């Protein structure tokens, strides 16, 4: 796997930009007046770490009054709380639309964040290296999640990505502690390095809305045992599954493997001699002849028992994941139901 030096350098450069003056301070928080003259952005102090005396729980106000004028708080600006190591929880008001670049970067003590349904954008590095952030709920209002937004959040074990998001950007969850992730069927692409080094992930079901999987997207997911890829995928990037050394079952619904554009070393260090490659009926020879897919020694045709992957399967009953484990509240994905594989929206 290529070293991730350049992206990390860019992350460092963009996160620590020169400080700029704020327009006013109220209750020890700094604000800049937005161009509309009626709203403000929470900004930072001139020194790093920002707000060195800030600790514990923080509740950002919906509005502030300065000089006799009331201003609505509509965004949390670039680097606003970056480096506030003693901050443990943050409540963001329903007036905020944007969480800016590196807004909570390096908030090591942050364990809880409440993001309201008004937020549409979580910018790059917004929660980068928030090591103790254990869970986060992303509301359906969010349409954009930037690169590195939750990267290196070591304690982040689960996240639900809303249907309002159409793309998982590059390095979004890089090195996080995810053990499970729900990828909605609104997602069309999974960016480069998106889930790279998420060592806790054990299974991933990619919905049939996805057409591209970026390079190194799942590289280094050492405990990943099961992957399911739909027929909608047309490209898989370089090293996409590099070093997924515990893969046991790779389910592919791709009917013509030679039609999929593969970067080099997609399955580098995957145990292709022991991992079962599950393919659609009648496609074994196509996979044996296809570049990189042919590395799999054990190819099994067992995909005909799935109900149409586009079917909205809403039946009640016990669902099992592809590892045979019961799932109480199944979300979007492929499951075993009454002895058959089904796709549940």
Task: Sum up the structure in keywords.
345 residues, mainly beta, 28% strand, eight-stranded mixed beta sheet, 2 helices, five-stranded parallel beta sheet
Structure commentary:
The protein has 345 residues and is mostly beta strands. 5% of the residues lie in helices and 28% in strands. The strands form seven sheets. Strands 1, 2, 3, 5, 6, 8, 10 and 12 form an eight-stranded mixed sheet that branches. Strands 14-16-18-20-22 form a five-stranded parallel sheet, with no helix packed on it. Strand 5 and strand 6 form a beta hairpin. The radius of gyration is 22 Å and the shape is elongated. Mean pLDDT is 88; it is low at 9-19 and 305-311.
Overall geometry: elongated
Give the C-alpha Rg. 22 Å
In this structure, how is the largest beta sheet organized?
8 strands, mixed
Model regions low in confidence, pLDDT < 50 over at least 5 residues: 9-19, 305-311
Per DSSP, what share of the residues sits in E-state strands of 2 or more residues? 25-35%
Number of strands: 28
Category from helices, strands and their pairing: mainly beta
Strands, helices and their partners?
Elements: H1 5-15, E1 24-26, E2 29-33, E3 39-43, E4 56-59, E5 63-66, E6 69-76, E7 87-91, E8 98-99, E9 112-114, E10 121-122, E11 135-137, E12 144-145, E13 158-160, E14 167-168, E15 180-182, E16 189-190, E17 203-205, E18 212-213, E19 226-229, E20 235-236, E21 249-252, E22 261-262, E23 276-279, H2 284-289, E24 298-301, E25 319-320, E26 326-327, E27 333-337, E28 340-344
Parallel strand pairs: 3-6, 4-7, 6-8, 7-9, 8-10, 10-12, 11-13, 13-15, 14-16, 16-18, 17-19, 18-20, 19-21, 20-22, 21-23, 23-24
Antiparallel strand pairs: 1-2, 2-3, 5-6, 25-26, 27-28
């Amino acid at each position: 796997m290529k070293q991730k030096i350049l992206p990390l350098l860019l992350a460092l450069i963009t996160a620590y930009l020169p400080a700029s003056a704020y327009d006013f301070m109220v209750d020890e928080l700094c604000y800049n007046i937005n161009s509309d003259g009626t709203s403000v952005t929470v900004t930072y102090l001139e020194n790093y770490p920002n707000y060195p005396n800030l600790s514990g729980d923080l509740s950002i106000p919906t509005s502030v009054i300065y000089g006799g004028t009331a201003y609505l708080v509509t965004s949390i600006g670039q680097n606003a709380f970056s480096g506030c190591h003693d901050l443990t929880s943050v409540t963001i008001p329903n007036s905020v639309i944007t969480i800016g670049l590196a807004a909570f970067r390096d908030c090591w003590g942050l364990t809880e964040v409440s993001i309201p349904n008004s937020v549409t954008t979580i910018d790059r590095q917004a929660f980068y290296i928030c090591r103790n952030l254990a869970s986060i709920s992303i509301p359906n209002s969010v349409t954009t999640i930037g690169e590195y937004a939750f990267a290196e959040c070591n304690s982040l074990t689960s996240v639900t990505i809303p249907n309002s998001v159409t793309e998982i950007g590059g390095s979004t969850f890089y090195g996080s502690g995810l053990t499970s992730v729900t990828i909605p069927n609104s997602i069309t692409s999974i960016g480069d390095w998106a889930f790279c080094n998420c060592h806790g992930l054990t299974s991933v079901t990619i919905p049939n809305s996805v057409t591209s999987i970026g390079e190194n997207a799942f590289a280094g997911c050492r405990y990943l045992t099961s992957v399911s890829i739909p027929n909608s995928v047309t490209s898989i990037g370089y090293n996409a599954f590099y070093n997924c050394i515990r893969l046991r079952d790779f389910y592919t619904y791709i009917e013509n493997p030679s039609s999929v554009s593969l970067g080099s070393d997609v399955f580098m260090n995957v145990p292709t001699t022991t991992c079962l490659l599950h393919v659609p009926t009648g496609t074994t020879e196509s996979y044996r002849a296809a570049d990189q897919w042919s590395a799999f020694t054990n190819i099994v045709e067992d995909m005909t028992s799935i109900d149409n992957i586009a079917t909205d399967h809403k039946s009640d009953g016990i669902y099992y994941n592809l590892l045979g484990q019961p799932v109480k509240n199944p979300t979007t994905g492929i499951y075993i139901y009454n002895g058959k594989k089904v796709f549940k929206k």
